[in-house]
Amino acid sequence: MEARALSKSVRMSPRKVRLIADAMRNMSIDDAFQMLEVTPKKAARIILKTLQSAIANATNNAKLDRSKLVIASILVDEAPALKRFHPSSRGRTHPYKKKGSHIKIVLKEKGDTK
């Protein structure tokens, strides 16, 4: 049995979020909590909130045991970028994109093979 949580349109670059997400793949949720609480990055707070939501979904909706939960997968996808312009000299503009992320966390029980 699986439980999942999504955070959509998070205003942070996927590259920055993936730095934290890659470090916590296949961890137990207790180890992931400890790592996220001491990591001094904004992405760690965002992933921590998503992880807490996934745990709540697992315990309340799927009726899974919290002590047996393991992170099955973490996906960080690109959200649609906000296109902005920076004024430049001689009446010109320079375009840039403010990137965003979609974060998906899937939890499963430790002994579950599916």
Overall description:
The chain is α+β, with helices and mostly antiparallel strands. It has one domain: Ribosomal protein L22/L17 (Ribosomal Protein L22, Chain A, Alpha-Beta Complex). About 35% of the residues lie in helices and about 40% in strands. It has three helices and three strands, in the order E-H-H-H-E-E. The protein has helices at about 15-25, 30-40, 40-60, and strands at about 1-10, 70-85, 95-110. It has a three-stranded antiparallel beta sheet. Strand 2 (about 70-85) and strand 3 (about 95-110) form a beta hairpin. Helix 2 runs antiparallel to helix 3 (about 40-60). The longest helix has 20 residues, at about 40-60. The chain is elongated and about 65 Å long. The mean pLDDT is about 95.
Question: Mind sketching the topology for me?
Answer:
Layout: E1 2-10, H1 14-23, H2 29-38, H3 42-61, E2 69-87, E3 93-109
Antiparallel strand pairs: 1-3, 2-3
What structural category characterises the helix and strand content? alpha+beta
Name given to the CATH homologous superfamily: Ribosomal protein L22/L17
Spatial shape = elongated
Helix content: 25-40%
Q: How many domains make up the coordinates?
A: 1
Question: What series of H and E elements makes up the topology?
Answer: EHHHEE
> Terminal Cα separation, in Å?
7 Å
Question: Which topology does CATH recognise?
Answer: Ribosomal Protein L22, Chain A
Query: What's the CATH class label?
Result: Alpha Beta
Strand order of the largest sheet: 1-3-2
As residue ranges, the low-confidence spans are none
Q: What does the average pLDDT come to? A: 93
Strand content: 35-45%
The CATH architecture comes to: Alpha-Beta Complex
The total count of strands amounts to 3
Radius of gyration: 17 Å
Biggest beta sheet attributes: 3 strands, antiparallel
In DSSP terms (H or I, runs of 4 or more residues), the helix count works out at 3
